[in-house]
Design brief:
89% helix
């Protein structure tokens, strides 16, 4: 079954490439280079996006928040930690820029980074409280 899905994915990518070539040929034969290049670019971009999504399935699961096993959970933890560290570094740099050069753009960056970090900490608090609370379904089944 997995082989069939893999073949379908490759076939879809190949069809996107074929359509991109067809749009390119038809557009240039009609003398409209903007449509030819634009349409071919859209289909090529879609083929590349589909190819990358197929190859990066664990990464795609990371973005949508679902995981399959402990190794992918560890990847999520490390990626989240890195994103938090980058946001914190940007916050510090933006505050320094704002203080030293009085830049309003730096203040906006600092506020945005602070909001990202605050939402992360708030999410940790919220979801850790939800994880430690007994669920209603488990208590209803015990009664």
């Amino acid at each position: 079954m997995a082989l069939r899905a893999r073949v379908k994915d490759r076939l879809f990518t190949a069809l996107c490439l074929i359509v991109a070539i067809a749009v390119l040929v038809v557009g240039f034969s009609r003398g409209n280079s903007k449509v030819a290049l634009g349409g071919a670019g859209i289909f090529l971009g879609y083929a590349v996006l589909h190819w990358a999504a197929r190859r990066l399935t664990p990464g795609a699961r990371l973005v949508i928040g679902s995981e399959a096993d402990a190794a992918e959970r560890m990847v999520q933890v490390r990626a989240t930690r890195l994103a938090g560290q980058v946001a914190l570094a940007l916050l510090v740099l933006a505050v320094l820029w704002w203080v030293l050069w009085d830049s309003r753009a730096a203040l906006w960056v600092a506020v945005a980074c602070a909001l990202v970090l605050a939402s992360f900490v708030g999410g940790l608090v919220w979801f850790s409280r939800a994880a430690t609370r007994p669920s209603r379904t488990s208590s209803a089944g015990a009664a």
